[in-house]
Amino acid sequence: MDLDDLDAVLIGAGHNSLACALMLAAKGWRVGVFERADVPGGAVKSGEYTLPGFRHDWAAMNLSLFAGSQFHKQFAEELAGHGLSFVPVNRPFASAFPDGTWLGVDQDAGVTRARIAALSEADARTWDALTAGFGDRAEDVFALLGSRMKIHALAYFLWGLWRRRGVSGALDLARFLLASPRAWLTETFETEKLRAMLGAWGMHLDYAPDSAGGALFPYLEGMAGQAFGMALGQGGADTVTKALVRAIEARGGRVECGTEVARIEHENGIARAVILADGRRVAAKRAVIANLAPNALIRLTGGTGDAGFDARMESYAHAPGTMMIHLAMDSLPDWSAGDDLKGVAYVHLAPSLDQMARTYQQAKAGLLPDEPVIVVGQPTVFDPSRAPEGKHVLWMQVRMVPGRIEGDAAGQISARDWSEAAEPMAERALDILERYAPGARAKILGRRIVTPAELEADNPNLVGGDQVCGSHHLAQHFLFRPAPGHADGSTPIRNLHLTGAAVWPGGGTGAGPGYQLAQRLT
After folding, report:
1. Which residues of the chain have pLDDT under 50?
2. What are phi and psi of 447, to 5 degrees?
3. Which residues are 507's β-sheet partners?
């Protein structure tokens, strides 16, 4: 492809920019994607990070949002032809508790109900009601999440909501969308374990138990996990990335890795080209699309000329960091709660809302949490191709941890740099795993610790190890993501657009920001 003949230049080969590039290519645009890392995908990539034959997902493992997205529905056949394949999961998640019990969601609603009823028949009846009403509530929620965050689009949604539900129904949804996880969970359920099982999902998206606006995510994960299960990538999450790249190239597009963009060239308020670190100038006739953290947009442009917009980009708030621990295992952990937990994709070690709230506040204060939330992924239960026969991989997320260390909440780790704090913090996380699954350490064949600093060095969009590229709190969500008037990815510079998790509808693997931007451009 002639680099002087591109309609669109895309910066970064994350799944949002790749999805956008494919949609533009399908409309006849000549597209070029330039990625600073040696491999595409951003947080959605996989590799043998511990031992040969053991394939680990670098950051993202759960591909349910992508599998159910509007983008995938439109390009499913094409992507499957380029190798995209999912593994269905019928037991998506559970929480283990210190007393040796566990509670989880199964695609068999009767199984889920029975587990809840063993704790509380009242909660089981509430769960029945939520299950029965999920389709009706989901119609409104997914319509909102899929809408464009412009005033007229939001007004159209609200008008439709009022006509469908009336004033009372519309206010009920609004109240739910503003509620914190704790407020909704304590109002809805009486058992602490059920509250904790659902509340753990808020921590995936920067919603601590007391964060306003966070009730939606635990609700959706609980209901959608039961209704649809979970989707993993066959052989690794990078099945998505590889298929997207092949599809773009098959349509005449270009994806070039190991190529850093040094500057976005703009003149008279119009984006013209990008300047690569090797000195090449790549012109863009119709669009420069940046899959970047907002502060990087200002660095590459030297400022957009709109002081208010630039200030918003530079003050954009990021969530606390995450530490990843990849383990090659001789066998699965022997969970104290029983062997049934060996059949679950995600096991949350987050026993109470209070513990999650404390962990979040410690991380926000720059402290290494004394008992972080641990997410233990067991992908080889459903996809044995990721490890040698009879062996397994564990995918451990340590949530939350600070990007910049100011101290240790437990008073045990003196290191203030992640290069020195990585090992003792990983040992703390493995101590927690060992409490819930005695003997787990003895099963470890190899391990790889990935600190927040390494996550950011690998992908600068993950500032401080923030895997969702920005807090989703109400002040930075909906119409305000990343700034009022720019939730559609527009910028004050004509033909320059922002995409990725920093743009509405935000983080996750659903490719919503890239999909919506491509729709707007074509």
Report:
1. none
2. -145, 155
3. none
**21: which 2 tokens?**
């590039």
Q: DSSP states of 250-270 as a string?
A: HTT-EEE-S--EEEEEEETTE
Q: Note the pLDDT of residue 146.
A: 75
Please report which helix (H) or strand (E) contains residue 46, including its range.
Answer: strand 46-47
Q: How far is CA 505 from CA 134, 206, 461, in A?
A: 21, 14, 16
Q: Which long-range contacts (CB under 8 A, 24 or more apart) does 245-250 make?
A: 245/13, 245/18, 245/40, 246/82, 246/83, 247/22, 247/75, 247/78, 247/79, 247/82, 248/18, 248/21, 248/22, 248/25, 248/31, 248/33, 250/82
d(CA 332, CA 343): 10
Q: Which of 170, 201, 184 is nearest to 95 (CA)?
A: 201
**DSSP one-letter string for 263-299:** EEEEETTEEEEEEETTS-EEE-SSEEEEE--HHHHHH
Who's near 263: CB < 8 A, 6+ residues apart? 274, 275, 300, 301, 302
Eight-state DSSP code of residue 339: G
Give the pLDDT of residue 153. 64
DSSP code string of 388-432: STT-EEEEEEEEEE-SS--EETTS-----SHHHHHHHHHHHHHHH
Question: Tokens 């009920």 map to which residue?
Answer: 172
Q: Hey, what are 395's tokens? A: 């995918």
The DSSP 8-state label assigned to residue 372 in this structure reads -
